[in-house]
Structures are given as C-alpha cells and as structure tokens.
Design a protein that fits this description.
Elements lengths: L3 E3 L1 H28 L8 H4 L5 H5 L7 E3 L13 E4 L3 E4 L1 H7 L1 H16 L9 H5 L20 H9 L8 H4 L19 H4 L5 H13 L6 H20 L18 H40 L6 E3 L2
Parallel strand pairs: 1-2
Antiparallel strand pairs: 3-4, 3-5
Protein name: 3-methyladenine DNA glycosylase
C-alpha cells in the first residue's frame, strides 16, 4: 500500500488544531484540579477512565501516514514511531500490533459484534437506579448529589420496571439486592457477546478503546469519541435517580411515560453515533494491519523508535 505523506506545515497545523480542541474539552477538569472542586457528571470521564488529558492532547495521524521532517522534531522520540528516509516519521504499526495483539483482537471483536447486535432501547437508564437500590443512607455512589426521589420511591422505580442491563461494567456496580432483578448476568468473559449499541455505557466505552489503541487511531477519531462519551454521560446522569439540577441539567424522568420516550429517542441517536465511531476505529485497525504487513517487508535500514 502507498503511504500518505504530510508536509511539516500540514502535520504541524493538524497537531496544533488537535491541541486546541483537546485543551477546550479538558479545560474544566484541569481547572477543577487546581481548585479542588469536583463535578459529578464531567469528572467521570477522567476518574472512571484513568487517562490523563495529556494522552487526549497527543495527536496521531493514524497508520500509514508519513510525517515529513518529524524525526528531527520532538515527535521523532514518540513511542511506536519509526524513522524513514532519515528525517521522516511514521507510526510503527508492525511493532505496536505485535506488542498488543491480544488487546487489539479483543477490541476488533467487541466493536464488530456490538455494532452487529440488535440495539436495545428498553433499559431506560435503570442501571443507575439499580446501583442505589436498597442502599443504606449515605452509601450511594455519588454522595455529593441528592436523590430526586425518596429512598422508598427510588426503590419502587426499580421494583416496578423491567431491568435489562447488558453491560458488565455497569452491572458489577448493582447492589446485591438489585442483581437478581436483572434479566441477564453479564460477565467479563461474555462481554463481547452481550454488548449492544443501544447501551449508553458501551457508547462511552468507544473512547476507552480508541485511546487504548494509541497511535493507530487518528486524533480526530479520538476526540470525536471523547465528545460522544461526554454527551452520553450527561444523559446517563439526567436519567439517573440523582438531582443534577445544580449543574444546569434538567432531569429525564424515566419513571414517567414521557421520560421514557425522551430517553429512548436520545438513546437511538447515541447508538447511531457510537456505531459510526466504531466503524471508524475498526477502519483504523484495518489500515494499521495493512501498514504493518508492508512495514514487515521494508528495508532493514528503517530505524524503529519504540522507546
């Protein structure tokens, strides 16, 4: 395959634009870290997903893109890049794929199967309610936020609705009393078979998989997946039993017919966005595999820089 080439002005411009966009997306988190403030909605993307803003800020072109003159730049020392033609750099797809073969295969299977599964739109965000079902006073996950309803009313919502969570990383936070109420018992081992695009947490996780793939994923795809996760997180908390009005967010009252309808409508839109991003991540992996095959046939004069 023929590699794309970016001149120094082209790739440095793309990198600068990426930095600006990433800085805007992480400005609130970075500011709160200085003041000690917290944000129960937005901080989730930096606490549950343990990736520093610096990782989000680092721009990569994806595989099979030669950056002219980058070997003499700071980028020339980035991990998983190699030098070509003495002064240019390209992602060392072959080395990265070889080092992370197991993870890469899992991500490919998970994203492909999640997209192929029929999306489900009847869960109504009840996973968050199941996480506070019959908990002792003061033991809820988000202690800084009050519940919208009383404890008894919150429990009644769980007991009078169909609980159908397909996402293991949400299900594992269910209270012991809530677990038997779920129609499934998802596990880590069955994750790639049970996840489906209607799940808000599976949509947020596209960001996790994109950032785990590092230089194989173009910067635009990474930031688009972060924005998707941010938008989904807002609905996740709006539909939760917590009162998020202090953050300027109106509740989505899924305990009502109207609230369920609003939730499902927004959920469908997120399913479409998440599947589009899954396709872009899978495309990046396929391109990387093609690039790796070509790199393995390259002249040994190319110098790998996997520091």
């Amino acid at each position: 395959m023929n590699d794309t080439r970016l001149t120094a002005p082209e790739w440095s411009g793309a990198e600068a634009a990426h930095h600006e966009r990433a800085d805007a997306l992480t400005a609130g988190w970075r500011s709160r870290r200085q003041t000690g403030e917290t944000h129960a909605v937005d901080d989730f993307l930096f606490t549950y997903y343990p990736y520093k803003p610096s990782m989000l800020r680092r721009w990569h072109p994806g595989a099979a893109v030669v950056l002219e003159g980058a070997a003499t730049h700071e980028r020339g020392q980035y991990r998983w890049y190699r030098t070509v033609s003495d002064v240019d750099s390209i992602v060392d797809a072959a080395a990265l794929i070889d080092a992370r073969a197991s993870m890469l295969g899992f991500v490919e299977r998970l994203l492909s199967r999640t997209s192929a599964q029929p999306a489900q739109f009847g869960c109504f965000g009840l996973h968050e309610w199941a996480m506070v079902y019959k908990v002792a006073a003061g033991a809820v996950r988000h202690e800084a936020l009050p519940l919208r309803l009383s404890a008894d009313e919150t429990d009644r919502v769980v007991e009078t609705n169909h609980i159908a969570c397909t996402h293991f990383d949400a299900f594992r936070f269910f209270t012991p009393d809530a677990r038997p109420l779920n129609t499934l018992s998802p596990t880590r081992d069955t994750q790639e078979f049970t996840e489906q695009a209607g799940c808000l947490h599976a949509g947020m996780d596209v960001y996790k998989w994109a950032i785990k793939l590092g230089p194989l994923v173009p910067g635009e795809v990474l930031l688009d997946s972060f924005e998707l996760a941010r938008d989904i997180r807002q609905l996740d908390m709006q539909a939760s039993p917590y009162d998020v009005s202090s953050y300027g967010l109106a509740p989505v009252r899924i305990e009502t017919r109207e609230g369920k309808s609003e939730y499902a409508t927004r959920q469908r839109a997120f399913a479409e966005r998440s599947n589009a991003l899954r396709s872009r991540v899978l495309d990046a992996i396929r391109l990387a595999r093609d690039a790796a095959a070509g790199q393995q046939a390259m002249s040994p004069r190319a110098t790998a820089l996997a520091t």
